[in-house]
Amino acid sequence: MIKILVIFFYIFIFFSSAKSSIMETLNTDISQQTISISSNFTGKKILLFGNKEIEGDIIITIKGPKEKILVHEKTKKLGIWVNSKKIVFSDVPSYYAIASNRNINDIIPIGIQNELQIGAKRLKIKTVHDSIISNKKINEFKSGLIRNKIRKNLYSSNENSVIFNNKLFRSEINFPTNAPEGTYKINTYLVENSKIINSKENSIFITKVGIERKIYNFANKEPALYGISAIIIAIFSGSIASIIFRRI
After folding, report:
1. Which SS3 state, helix, strand or coil, does residue 135 take?
2. CA pair distance 38, 27, nearest whole angstrom
3. How far apart (Å, rounded) are the C-alpha atoms in residues 139 and 142?
4. Which of 80, 131, 175, 234 would suit a FRET pair with 43, their CA atoms being 20 to 30 Å apart?
């Protein structure tokens, strides 16, 4: 009985050591864990860096807080573009970026990309709708949503942007001026022979500060008063401008 327990003990130690060894094949960190948005915020670049103890490729994904988005399809009627069909998407990353040391399709197969949602078009975005809509139509709306995100610099793909220096690596992550508030998840994958060997997760928090924070809180907590205040300020500003131009 004692011999059996000893054998199981050594087996446990062996697998524990093997697991620890695997966990140490990849280490990552970021240069800053909090970004403060103030009136003079013009965007921010964060450095992700780390080391890998084995040969392999690096893929990095960054996802912002999820949101619900209404997407309209525009059609031309009597020479005017108007909104027609619409789809509401939920669980949409407000921000999404990807970085790698080379072409991602050369690093891992499409199946793993789909499983890990690597790439904007592979994001598992849900739809909220009452009527039956074909998958083809949903994909068209989803493509439009992604195009709008790219146009606003909220979605990006930066292959060949991870730089190696022996076992060390680094990559810059760019957050634009319109980056939404919230927690961003940064996942780094170490890939060897088309297989995920290890992964690490870091997070960064973006928050408004100063007068921007007060205005944001007021707009969300008291939307009606915020709207009325905005109208009053607009009318007052227009009146002042009118008086000034009359005297000039």
Report:
1. helix
2. 32
3. 5
4. 234
User: From its phi and psi, is residue 177 left (phi > 0), alpha (psi between -120 and 50) or beta?
Assistant: alpha
Residue 21 CB neighbour total at 10 angstroms? 10
Co-location of 190 and 223 in the same domain = no
For residues 125 and 89, the answer to whether their CB atoms sit within 8 Å is yes
Please check whether residues 216 and 101 belong to one and the same domain: no
Distance CA 218, CA 91 (A): 25
What distance, in Å, lies between the first and last C-alpha atoms of the chain?
103
Nearest to 118 by CA among 138, 96, 101: 96
Residues 150 and 189 in one domain: yes
State pTM to two decimals.
0.74
Question: Are residues 184 and 223 part of one domain?
Answer: no
218 shares a domain with 122:
no
Residue 111 counted as domain residue: yes
What tens digit of pLDDT does each residue of 3-32 get? 443 344 334 333 444 444 445 689 999 999
Q: What share of the chain is helix, strand, coil (3-state, %, to 5)?
A: 35, 40, 25
| Strand extents, DSSP E, 40-116 | 44-52, 57-63, 66-77, 80-93, 96-100
Question: Tokens representing 191?
Answer: 């890939």
Q: Which of 41-45, 101-105, 132-136, 192-196 has the lowest mean pLDDT?
A: 132-136
**Range of the structural domain that residue 88 is part of:** 20-208
The separation between CA 121 and the C-alpha centre of its own chain, rounded to angstroms, equals 13
Structure tokens at 58: 């690096």
User: What does the block give as tokens for 27?
Assistant: 């280490």
Encode pLDDT of 205-226 as tens digits: 999 875 555 555 555 555 666 5
Tell whether 196 and 225 lie within a shared domain. no
